[in-house]
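Re: your question from the hallway

Yes, I did run it. Sequences:
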Amino acid sequence: MGNQSLLDNMINELKRGTQIMIVLHALKDMQYGYSLLQVLNDKNVNIEAGTLYPLLRRLDQQGLLDSIWDTSESRPRKYYKLNEEGTQILEALKKAWKDMITDVNQSISEEEK
Amino acid sequence: MKKYIERYIFDVTRRLPKDIQEEVEKELNSNIYDMLPENPTEEDIDQVLHELGNPRKIANNYKEDKRYVISPLYYDDYIRVLKLVAIIVGVISLVIGAIDSIIGVNEPTILESIGYVISRIVGDFVSSMVSVFFFVTLIFWAVDHHTTGEKSEAWKLKDLPDLPSPKTTRISKTSTMIGLMFHTIFSAIFIIFLLKYVSVTGWYNNDIYLAPFFNESVTDQFVIFFIISAVIGFIVYIVQLYEGEWKTKVAICYTAKTIIGLTIGLLFINHPNLISTQFFMSLSNTMDVTVEYLKDGLRNILIWITVIVILVSVIDLISIWLKTLKPKSLKA
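Structure:
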């Protein structure tokens, strides 16, 4: 198909909007960067490492995550977990997402108008 | 081998603000080693770093506010203003360059003075373009970075631009500008030649001056007309740039310019005494033919040149008037 790359771009564009919600949800459990990447990949969410790590930093900066450096092991690791404010935001996001799904499905359904 | 990781991290962090560099370095370092197996080979490192992506790209992801010199919001206006200012300043620089070089040229030969004129005019033009680029960019940068979001939201209906008149053919600004530049350079060179180098242009034999090529008394009469014609040509180019489309008045100016230039040019080359008698005599001696024979030959060539030049000009004028009166595309 000649428009394959165009289609891929559009699909990626669609996915990108949902990434933050998925990442926030996955951070209900405490994770470090790479473990989170693996969790997401196991769930078939393919977010690139080069996107995820900066995103974690941004969410942390926005006060939605608690982060802590674990220095007990030989190599320090930074752990992240959703905090109270992050949980609220996530719930609001989820609600908006569900409303959106209903509206969007309605507007693109094949049935009679 | 580990150096690659450090170099990669450095390439990312050097693009970031100072205050987050150290923290991002620690994060990246930890993340990269998490992604690597124990005792990684160079291949492993290569793969992991490529998974993370181009350092420029990941650094851009780390930045909170995307930074632009000119943001996309202002980019179109920026380009438009840049073109406009470049044209105005470019024209001024061509005028000053031409006048300056006509007054200031003092080279021993016409060839050297041609070099001087071209380098002078082009040099002035280029340096003025560089300053235009610099200052317009600076001003737009300042406006862009000191306009708050609210201000750029506000706009008035009155500020919307007027629609261009639909039934005209547009004049390309770039090709007009290039035309103007060549016009200025060649006019300046030709006028300098007529003013200063006619008397030394001629037939030399082993550095001995045999005969002047032109009759100086004839060329002197024409100098003022060529200057007037050059200035008129210059003004018509400005009119073309200013109007930007083939309106009737632009076509009239263009026609007038062509006819004036054509008349002066043809009168000049067809002037019976343009080429000096001494030159004809020297030539007839060398070629072993009579002066009359040479003059007849020259007259025949000149008739052909005249016919061709008139034909080309007429075709040019017809095409201009067709563009003006019956524009092809109606880009509204």
